[in-house]
């Protein structure tokens, strides 16, 4: 297991609890952050709390292709994300979310109630996966319509984030998915988030300025390889990693293709 060294915002003197989050490691090098959406979502949630100094956060990556013996002993075949709080391991996504909300100091404030936003971002990821699998214009259009709705919501509210000017759980859920759409969509089907969706680009710009996102974000190569492996299941030859991918310097797409000052 690899310790990412994320102890942001809180001391270890016992004044705040230490929370450990075990996340999937890169499928390329087995050490850096992998492209698991849920891992990044909970990483962001907890990072925000660490910034507020309500917790001390430790993040550990685990290579699931070759998990270390102590991981197998403690968690058997369970896949990350795994949250450990005072020796208690929480293994399922819904239970992790509930634990952050109810048991982690400050967590309750992240989980705002907003049915409109919850519905708005629902099923966005499934539209990306359909687009990558089907690779036809109709699937592209379905994703575009969904992104337009999110853009319109942001434009109407006029706030930095989905529910206001401070981040909440919905932002930690949405932004990793937008990054996958941006990186994987471009690579596999030459899909670009339209430049005219300026409210959405402004939202992404604000997210790119935040350590909670940049510190938790996987490299472009890891996002791409995540979907390559999904598409290659059952084809052993395709599963073999190309050497140049292992040696390639990680890149992170965080630029904005529009001038927001002109909007």
Automatic annotation (TrEMBL):
<feature type="domain" description="CLIC N-terminal">
    <location>
        <begin position="17"/>
        <end position="100"/>
    </location>
</feature>
<dbReference type="GO" id="GO:0006821">
    <property type="term" value="P:chloride transport"/>
</dbReference>
<keyword id="KW-0472">Membrane</keyword>
<dbReference type="InterPro" id="IPR036282">
    <property type="entry name" value="Glutathione-S-Trfase_C_sf"/>
</dbReference>
<comment type="similarity">
    <text>Belongs to the chloride channel CLIC family.</text>
</comment>
<dbReference type="GO" id="GO:0005254">
    <property type="term" value="F:chloride channel activity"/>
</dbReference>
<dbReference type="Pfam" id="PF22441">
    <property type="entry name" value="CLIC-like_N"/>
</dbReference>
<keyword id="KW-1133">Transmembrane helix</keyword>
<dbReference type="GO" id="GO:0016324">
    <property type="term" value="C:apical plasma membrane"/>
</dbReference>
<protein>
    <submittedName>
        <fullName>AGAP000943-PE</fullName>
    </submittedName>
</protein>
<dbReference type="GO" id="GO:0005737">
    <property type="term" value="C:cytoplasm"/>
</dbReference>
<keyword id="KW-0812">Transmembrane</keyword>
<dbReference type="InterPro" id="IPR053823">
    <property type="entry name" value="CLIC_N"/>
</dbReference>
